[in-house]
């Protein structure tokens, strides 16, 4: 099991202080997801992909799940509200062929498509069936130390026509995104004649003899 996070300077929320064995403490990155921009490709029911990102204590709710539509593939585009150091992932499904068999993680590729998923992932896992949501897959923390967007690709399952997922847990640390300063420029609404004095030029006639 991964060690607890080290505290450093800056404003951060340590969501990975404990593993699953500590009663699910630390699996709080679902609170740091930008829900309005969260998107799941090939979901059978619109919006169902967002339901699997919830509190660890609520993972047993079998009414909340996502199921793939045309084939076994699912692809989640998960934007965060700040910078995340991802430390672990849990994938909970059925104890049958619909459970995903492989997970591929990509960082900082917004709006990823299935065509994009053909590239080399930042990390790949062979999954075991986990109907209770207690198996943690630790990430390479150095590789996932500054993640603003996470793509999770499930290319196949254990033999069923469709893939079903009840819960995805994300463990790590969240840091608030730095605010960009906005420069406000003042424009002159109407020119002041006193500030724009023109030197008068007296025209001279030139006689041609």
Query: Structural class, please?
Result: mainly beta
Strand fraction: 25-35%
Number of strands: 9
The total count of helices amounts to 0
Please compute the radius of gyration using only Cα atoms: 27 Å
Shape: globular
Mean pLDDT over all positions:
83
- Tell me the span between the first and last alpha carbons: 105 Å
> What's the SSE pattern?
EEEEEEEEE
- Note poorly predicted spans: 1-19, 181-188, 196-209
- Helical fraction: under 10%
**Major beta sheet, specifics?**
9 strands, antiparallel
What does this structure look like?
With 209 residues, the chain is mainly beta. The protein is 0% helix and 30% strand. The protein is built from no helices and nine strands. Strands 1, 2, 3, 4, 5, 6, 7, 8 and 9 form a nine-stranded antiparallel beta sheet that branches. The protein starts with 11 loop residues before the first strand and ends in a 33-residue tail after the last strand. The model is unreliable at 1-19, 181-188 and 196-209 (pLDDT under 50).
Précis, in short:
By secondary structure, the chain is an all-beta fold. It has strands at residues 12-14, 39-41, 66-67, 74-93, 102-107, 123-126, 136-138, 147-154, 164-176. The protein is built from no helices and nine strands.
